[in-house]
């Protein structure tokens, strides 16, 4: 009727004050709850890497405290530029205009590759908040050191 075993009922009758109080065993966490909240806040709002958070917080196991979090994940930012409805409409208009130009307009296709000399080429990983929409990392670079091969 109670959906409990005989042992559970016997232990409850023997000591009702102790029932439902589970003992927490194991090694205590080296990061306090306040520090965990501060680390989460830094990761969600400042878009920092693990190394930057570790330097800012001066704690040794920042990334380990995130593995148990369900609101924060570690991953790469999306790398395509944002295409709005206006961009798409303008692209279609441009393509329609170029189709009718005929021989007046020649297109040259080239095999070029661009390497960034001063950055990580978009391979940086960040902590991001699952409750928010993912941000987009634009690969359009203006200025800086880069080489076209």
Note down, in words, how this protein is organized.
With 149 residues, the protein is an alpha+beta fold. It has a domain at 29-77 and 122-139. The protein is 34% helix and 11% strand. It contains 5 helices and 4 strands; from the N terminus they run ααααβαβββ. The chain starts with 5 loop residues before the first helix and ends with a strand. The relative contact order is 0.16. GO terms for molecular function: nucleic acid binding. It comes from Araneus ventricosus.
In short:
It is built from five helices and four strands; from the N terminus they run H-H-H-H-E-H-E-E-E. With 149 residues, the chain is an alpha+beta fold. The protein starts with 5 loop residues before the first helix and ends with a strand.
Read across the widest sheet, the strand sequence of neighbours is 1-3
Order of helices and strands: HHHHEHEEE
Radius of gyration: 28 Å
- Supply the helix-strand structural class: alpha+beta
Major beta sheet, specifics?
2 strands, antiparallel
Unreliable stretches: none
Strand content: 5-15%
Number of strands: 4
Helix content: 25-40%
Mean pLDDT score: 71
Distance between the termini: 78 Å
Number of helices in the DSSP assignment:
5
- Gross morphology is elongated
């Amino acid at each position: 009727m109670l959906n409990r075993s005989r042992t559970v009922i016997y232990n409850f009758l023997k000591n009702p004050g102790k029932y439902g109080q589970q003992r927490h065993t194991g090694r205590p966490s080296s990061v306090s709850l306040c520090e965990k909240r501060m680390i989460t806040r830094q990761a969600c709002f400042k878009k920092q890497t693990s190394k930057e958070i570790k330097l800012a917080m001066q704690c040794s196991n920042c990334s380990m405290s995130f593995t148990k979090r369900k609101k924060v994940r570690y991953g790469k930012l999306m790398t395509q530029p944002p295409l709005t409805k206006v961009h798409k409409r303008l692209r279609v208009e441009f393509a329609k205009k170029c189709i009718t130009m005929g021989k007046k307009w020649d297109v040259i296709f080239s095999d070029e590759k661009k390497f960034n000399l001063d950055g990580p080429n978009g391979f940086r990983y960040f902590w991001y908040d699952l409750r928010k929409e993912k941000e987009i990392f634009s690969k359009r670079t203006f200025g800086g050191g880069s080489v076209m091969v």
